[in-house]
Amino acid sequence: MQPELHVDPNIYTRPFPRFDRPIIIGYIGLENLKYARRIGNERVRYDLNLHLDKAIHRPQDLDVRLNDLLKFLLEHERRLNFPIENSLDKAKFFCYRGLMTCVACTPYENREPWKMVAILYKGNIFLCARDTEDKLNRKLNMTERDKQFTSWGYKFEQFLLSDEPDSEPNPDVPVDENEEFSLVFTTHLNHHSIVYGAEMDGIRCDKEAVPKPPSELGPEAVIKYLSTKEFIELKTNRHIEHPKQETSFRRFKAKKWWCQSFLAGIDTILCGYRNDDGIVEELKTWKIRDLAKMSQRFWNPNVCFNFLDTFFTYVKRCLVREIKHKHGEKGLKNIPELPLMSLMFEWSPGMPIQVTGNYSHQDDPILWPWFVENYGKGVNNA
Fold first, then answer.
1. Counting Cβ atoms within 10 Å, is residue 350 exposed (0-12), middle (13-18) or buried (19+)?
2. Structural domain harbouring 336
3. Which of 95, 102, 101, 103 is nearest to 65 (CA)?
4. What is the pLDDT of residue 23?
5. What is the largest CA-CA distance in the chain?
6. How many structural domains comprise the chain?
């Protein structure tokens, strides 16, 4: 039987763990890269309902799993040339930023349960969030008002972001919610090596002239370009008018916004404050360090990242136990040659994290055959 992991924040109050500033190693969807020229505190009037009836919505039942990240890893395997590690301690984690944000916020979460799968393959650990039954039901039964709220966020980005560094935004066209630009980062959290994808909103162009990326020169030139640019995160929020709303913002949204931005090396968030009719009336910039300072009564960044570090260690320990159970001690000395192995981790508010048994990868594949059959063949580790 696998051990449990307790999430009480009081357990994780030690100093902030070592976390290297994330390094960009790739990108996904360069054709969707956007630019932000107008960043500041001002009064505006943005109607987020503009062309809402013509918006191209994301399918509500869409389950992207790790598809984009897996395609990236396969396409760039030779360039990245990750070493094959025999030790589980040195195994790389592959995931999305959203999963890391979810885990980091868990010690302070009191509403949303989650479940995740860890897959050990070729000496690497792939982490993927899965829908709980409640979340799946909510996705499949979204009201028109729920869909409207989602679309407002995309429309707000259209008022601030342009397709070219020297052009103005054009909100007078329907939104396509499927357009995404993502960066792929690598970092270390204490001794854990992590590679993760993160959807990015846009590059700041308000401080200096910014050229377009030199895509004709290949990935390394584009990565060098992206690594020298400052990205900004865009958010919308209802006007804060009462103390309870302010408390809720500091306790919940500020924590999530801080985690998301910190994990992507973003220093500034631009928030559009709207009314109930979807009209943004004020823009306000936030430094993420200020979000943490103003919310210290409710949450502590040290706790969030110490817990994230502990969770990664917990996943490895559970995999060690599973390997010993199935393959004995000798299995730990030849990690890359082990058959695909998976575990399900589940958590509900007020409970410890539990391993709920083997995940049926055959019934619900996360690493698709096109990845399993080809990954690992394009690298020379000699």
1. exposed
2. 9-372
3. 95
4. 98
5. 65
6. 1
- Specify the pLDDT at position 93: 98
Q: Token pair 């650990």 is at which residue?
A: 125
| Edge-to-edge strand ranges of the sheet holding 42-47 | 42-47, 279-287, 268-274, 231-238, 202-204, 35-36, 161-162
Residue 1 located in a structural domain: no
List of residues 6+ apart from 270 with CB closer than 8 A:
36, 39, 160, 232, 233, 234, 235, 283, 284, 285, 286
The reply to whether 265 falls in a domain is yes
Do 166 and 7 meet the contact criterion of CB atoms below 8 Å apart? no
Q: What is the pLDDT of residue 145?
A: 81
CA distance 379 to 371: 14
Rounded-to-integer distance, Cα 355 and Cα 112, Å:
18
Q: What average pLDDT score do residues 138-156 get?
A: 85
pLDDT(156) > 80:
yes
Mean pLDDT, rounded, for 211-239: 97
- Work out the angle at residue 108's Cα, subtended by the Cα atoms of residues 153 and 17, and round it to the nearest 5 degrees: 100
DSSP readout, 227-263?
Answer: HTSPEEEEEEEE---SHHHHHHIIIIIHHHHHHHHHH
Q: 363 falls in which pLDDT band (50, 70, 90)?
A: confident
Whether 302 is covered by a domain: the verdict is yes
Examine residue 205 and state whether it is found in any structural domain, yes or no: yes
Q: Could you report the per-residue pLDDT of 14-70, keeping only the tens digit for each?
A: 999 999 999 999 999 999 999 999 899 999 999 999 999 999 888 765 566 899 999
Q: How far apart are CA 171 and CA 156, in angstroms?
A: 9
Write out the H or E segment, with its range, that includes residue 346: strand 341-347
